[in-house]
Amino acid sequence: MPAPVQDSSPSSGIGHTHSRLISRISAVSFSLWLASGVIQPVQAAIIADKSAPGGQQPTVIGTANGTPQINIQTPSAGGVSRNTYSQFDIDQQGAILNNSRKNTSTQLGGMVSANPWLAKGEAKIILNEVNARDPSKLNGYIEVAG
After folding, report:
1. Is residue 4 part of a domain?
2. Are 85 and 131 in contact (CB under 8 A)?
3. Which single residue of 88, 98, 102, 115 has CA 20 to 30 Å from 38?
4. Domain Filamentous haemagglutinin FhaB/tRNA nuclease CdiA-like TPS: where (predicted)?
């Protein structure tokens, strides 16, 4: 008559200890690489292209809650604001294109300050150009204030 037998046997612990050691070494290696700058964390960034003409470089500041506020450049006589970036990555927090001549309320950033580049009027069209090797990462909302 067959007797029930336990299906598992106790482990010697070598495999488990070995995998924990590899994990620990990997975490230490990663930390050292990160600290030395060999690898860099993924960050969303909005950076004006410094090689573009001054009138095409938007100003990026933070709102009171930390959401990026992009003060677009002065629009042309036809109402086109041309803005050139070397990086345009949006994270889950989103970003605000500021097309307002006065302080205004936004859904993403709360109150935003007036855009100083819009003294002669707000843009009818906002043209955003990105000069980058890698594609932009749009992982959040982009709100237009104004």
Report:
1. no
2. yes
3. 88
4. 64-146
